[in-house]
Amino acid sequence: MHTFEQYFLMNSDDVIQYVKAKIDSFQSAQQITCKEIGDGNLNYVYRVLNTETNESVILKQAGTTARISDEFVLSTSRNKIETEALLLQHTLAPGLVPEILLLDETMSCCVMEDLSHLTIMRTALTNFETFPNFAEHITDFLVNTLLRTSDVVLNHKEKKDLVAKFINPELCEISEDLVFTEPFHNNFNRNEVTPGNEQFVQTHLYENEELHLEVAKLKFHFLNNTQSLIHGDLHTGSIFIDQNDTKVIDPEFAFFGPMGYDIGNVMANLIFAWARGRAYSDKEFTEWVENTLFDIMDLFDTKFRAAWDEHATELVAKNADFKEHYIQNILKDTAGMAGLELARRIVGLAKVKDITTIEPIEDRLKAERLCLRVAVELILNPSDFQTGGQYLTALQNALQE
Ligand code: SR1
Ligand code: MG
């Protein structure tokens, strides 16, 4: 019988015991099932169900290494960062993240609301499902979590306390390596270029000095700009969705970084879905993705401006030209970061199913080159991407080449 007073990595039986011990409504439950359902790269996720009452919860625990590979040795305290990010995001963007029921720092686990009536967005997009409310919901999430954790809104001392609380060096290092470094150099064995695209990657990424300069600028921006509490890994695998609801999950990479990293991740991962839609000639789906890309930029801009006017407390932020300058820079960062995400998911360690499951292989190779052409354009010319329309033009141009 465990007391859960010292950390160990739980199995399904341990999780049942744990939930009975820690969650009041499960205390006297007789019929409990528990299944590991995690499909992320880092942690273990269990769904615990009381089959008599149908009540269910999710338990997420961090192991001492990443699930994807033992080569990433990580502090289990990432679970605390994730849970505290969710708690804060819940106050800023209610209804758009799961409810937390318990945080256990000793066991490096949390218990949260079960969202398994929803689907992981990447899975749904891979099946060409569309979501009419997504642009509205994700821009509500982005504007509220990003603007309201920035110095525009927060008291600067309070913000510095939060910056310290969310220092996340190990998870940031993963992004620094996998997103900002490895995909642009051919001497990292975690890169895996699909056979047939070697020459393209060599020319457009590995030997592109102009690109390397822009990537270096973006990397130092990521390292040095404590702009807002960002999610840090906001791809479509970190979103649960259905026709009504959108819930953002998995912020274990959260730290104070540039807002554009989150917005760019959302844009890039929709571009993967778009490239897949093109590969399978699904016109309705690709049109929905295009409209969504357009709407996200448009809605973000409109809502961010309105939220600025409503919530800004910093005196200099009342200057209209400063507001303009600030927003232009967020959108510029968004383009650069979207380009990085597009490149790293094609070449680097953590690939995306939207692209890897495209068949036949010639179509996958073509979709990869399409994403990489868009990536290079976004990274080289980020200032040219202030509107959704400019993204759509870049997608059309990349198709021509
Ligand atoms: C070692 S973790 C690999 C990737 O999975 C996560 O979801 C992040 O995107 C990370 O880069
Ligand atoms: Mg994740």
From TrEMBL:
Residues 33-279 form the Aminoglycoside phosphotransferase domain. It holds the Pfam family APH. It comes from the Bacteria. Keywords: ATP-binding, Kinase, Nucleotide-binding, Transferase. Its EC number is 2.7.1.100. GO terms for molecular function: ATP binding; S-methyl-5-thioribose kinase activity. One of its GO terms (biological process) is methionine biosynthetic process. Gene3D superfamilies: 3.90.1200.10, Phosphorylase Kinase, domain 1. Belongs to the methylthioribose kinase family. Homodimer. This is S-methyl-5-thioribose kinase. It comes from Paenisporosarcina quisquiliarum. The lineage of its organism: Bacteria, Bacillati, Bacillota, Bacilli, Bacillales.
